[in-house]
Design brief:
The complex is a heterodimer of chains A (390) and B (234). With 390 residues, chain A is of the alpha/beta class. Chain A has 14 helices and 12 strands. Chain B: Keywords: Glutamine amidotransferase, Hydrolase, Lyase.
Chain lengths: 390, 234
Amino acid sequence: MSPTQSNGASPSTAVNPASTLNAARSQGREGSSNLGTFQVKSGLAQMLKVKYVFLVGGVIMDVVNAEQARIAEEAGACAVMALERVPADIRSEGGVARMSDPQLIKEIVAAVTIPVMAKVRIGHFVEAQILQAIGVDYIDESEVLTPADEQHHINKHNFKVPFVCGARNLGEALRRISEGAAFIRTKGEAGTGNVVEAVRHERAVMSDIRRASAMNDEELYAFAKEIQAPFHLLKETARLKRLPVSGDPAKRARAIVQAVSKFQKHAQVTHYNNPKILAEISENLGPAMVGLTMSVKSGRHEGRFTEQPRLYDVILCNPTPSELLPTPKQQSFESNFYKNGVMFKKKSAEGEAKIALRQFIEQSPQSQYRFDSERGADHSEICRSLEENV
Amino acid sequence: MGRQGVTIGVLALQGAFAEHINILTRLKISHLAITPLLVKTPDDLQRCDALIIPGGESTTIALLAKLAGLLEPLKGFVKEKPVWGTCAGAILLSEDVQGAKKGGQDLLGGINVSLERNGWGSQVESFEAPLAVHGLRDPDTPFNGVFIRAPVILELKTDPSRPPIDILARISPPLLPAVGSGSVSGSENGDLLDDDRTVVALRQGRLLITTFHPELTRDDRFHDFFVRNCVYGG
């Protein structure tokens, strides 16, 4: 018996279509009554939250109106992201970036058959409620928009609609998942067309997952504390060797990275491991996508929303020359600081930290202080423990 | 009977192909050696004895298939070999689709049904429902159907030249969501027992469609069914 020759049709019913349908229907009726019994017996909930999404291998395209959404659908997008302005414009024009106009989103939803995604400001649960009410398929709680809440993200468990959130490292990804995110993307430098940030974040997440997967429970407890992640989620991540969300985050991230990098190269996502096809589809694509250049200052990207800035925090600032008045103890590094009257960025960490600490304490000498840092940060942040003291 | 080998491809252009591969890799059928294969090019397709078209976006999958030069080979494959479509795959295997994108979309055809895309509403209206499925191993245990932006089967058509349609599962009317064209008014539940719109899994010859996603559960009985019945005609 060969698999290609087999045919499930039973010969007796194959010739008479009417009897076939009737037979099929009576069979179906039987099935339904069984179902009814089962349903009464089990009394299961009828509607459950289904937070699985189908974006693997696809491209999500940014669109600002229904017409663009139709173009994206024709071009094979697996979803569209409804935006008021594209990220490049948001970044260059500044101001407060909000959720898109609900009317615009409704028009886009009506225009296409593929899922529609929309962004809300971080922590802005009211925007999310509005989007859920108008029938958006996925919500992106996005750092591209102006954050509405510096400390708290949306409690995404309260929503039926799946959320995607950005993460730069494993701790951040697991915190978002514990808040109810259904899937995780990298935090790229939106609108720049530069994928280096996104690659860095994905590498960081995957590297931490590989480390965690080799740890025993004791080490996982310590690691969970270190990356500020819920232990049970970290343990599940270590067991699965991937994030405990639907699908394969690496593939998805790859898709999204590709999506932001070029509009029409969606085939890249499918054939990422086939260089021959990639060469063909990369030909004659025209000028590169318009992008902004990341502005870099002292090794940190300006204007990037840091995940959990605490109110009243002082994040190390660049000291001005007048604040770097020489004291005997600082002589050793000071010579490195100035060369031809120009302040050098590469400084002794000790000296910079001391200066920042002094400045910080001078602002509010009565406060209690603590030092805090993200994993792998190049320096600690000084924080006031109790804001009432400020 | 010796151990037979069978290569089952999963169309890996977009969507939930990894989940299908995972289940196929786990699946144990005593006398069969199953080799799962990701299908992205016509060459991959040629190596397959059977194919699964996963859930995803039917428009995206169709367009990518066209770009990969797979559309015509797939149409040929559907005519000759066993194919199973889940959700978006079911749309591609249908002869007629309502609610297609403007200007229509490419289908592979093969099963004489008319489907409506997203017939039960958007992502927010997605749902799960226990299903009694004919012919599965361990038939007393219901199969958990996961419906996500699922298509609704509007009508089963009769075609004397084609194998008969065999209904495998219906969704119980009280479990139906109250939205979309799959919605039903509660008082008419009795009339809906043989309404085509309640059909969620069916088989026509070697072709199988499910409007839900068996690959998203840990239950491998539908994959087992496909291999035993559609691939090996058991």
